[in-house]
Amino acid sequence: MRLTRYFLPVLKETPADAQIASHRLMLRAGMIKQSSAGIYSWLPLGYKVLKRIEDIVHEEQQRAGHIPMLMPTLQGADLWKQSGRYDAYGPEMLRITDRNDREMLYGPTNEEMITDIVGTYVTSYKALPLTLYHIQWKFRDEMRPRFGVMRGREFLMKDGYNFDLTKEDALHAYNRHLVTYLRSYERMGLQAIPMRADSGPIGGDYTHEFLVLAETGESEVFYDSEITDLSFGAREIDYDDKAQCQAVLEEFTSRYARTDETHDEAVFAEIPEARRRVARGIEVGQIFYFGTEYSEKMGAFVQNEDGARVPLHMGSHGIGVSRLLGAIIEASHDDKGIIWPEGVTPFHAGIVNLRQGDAATDSACDGLYNALIAAGLEPLYDDRDERAGGKFATMDLIGLPWRITVGPRGLANGMVELTSRRTGESQEMSPEAAVQRLAHIYADR
Ligand SMILES: Nc1ncnc2c1ncn2[C@@H]1O[C@H](COP(=O)(O)OP(=O)(O)OP(=O)(O)O)[C@@H](O)[C@H]1O
Ligand SMILES: [Mg+2]
Question: Which residues form the signal peptide (predicted)?
Answer without folding.
Answer: none
